[in-house]
């Protein structure tokens, strides 16, 4: 089955960890993930500036490793990310901000990517949100 | 044929960017000519009230974005009757025209009718 996965919560939220474990299980069971789309506070789950205590899970790091390893399409909504200060090199330069906290494998793009993923996938699975 | 998508909007307009971000998904879908429905549920109902003074809390008014829905070809707008009555709002008191108010049974059937659902 082809899954699209949307995440609406930050890396410290239980739903971000659940989304990651779901995604891992989906691939392990032979399913396909057409795209990950991080929206609302989900953009924080892609931040490269998160530091967790040594005896805790670093979910943001695990997300990045997972996406890289499996060469997945990891999209972070650009409007949601800018609003929350999650910037890649291009955006930090464009808005003259001092910090870059979004790097490969993540890509900034628009909501069209969410709609495209929904159309391509058999199922959209959402994590987090109100 | 395109898959249909129902957005269930549950946030009050003053509770943060949630309501606007739910609406942005709807407008983007409308721009791509996709079959999109929008259901206002729980505190999402408050987005539909007339005479809101967003400036008083230094926010932008969401009403203009809501009025743009039909321009983007999004005509399937619904409000949950139960959510309305819980908040003492009558369908007549809504600022957005052509919002269909649905019973709990009808909300259930609506969600069932769409291929995909996003709740925000």
Automatic annotation (TrEMBL), chain A:
It comes from the Bacteria. SUPFAM superfamilies: DsrEFH-like. Its main location: cytoplasm. Gene3D superfamilies: DsrEFH-like. Keywords: Cytoplasm, Transferase. It is found in: Cytoplasm. InterPro entries: DsrEFH-like, Sulphur_relay_DsrE/F-like, Sulphur_relay_TusD/DsrE. Belongs to the DsrE/TusD family. This is Sulfurtransferase complex subunit TusD. It comes from Pseudomonas kulmbachensis.
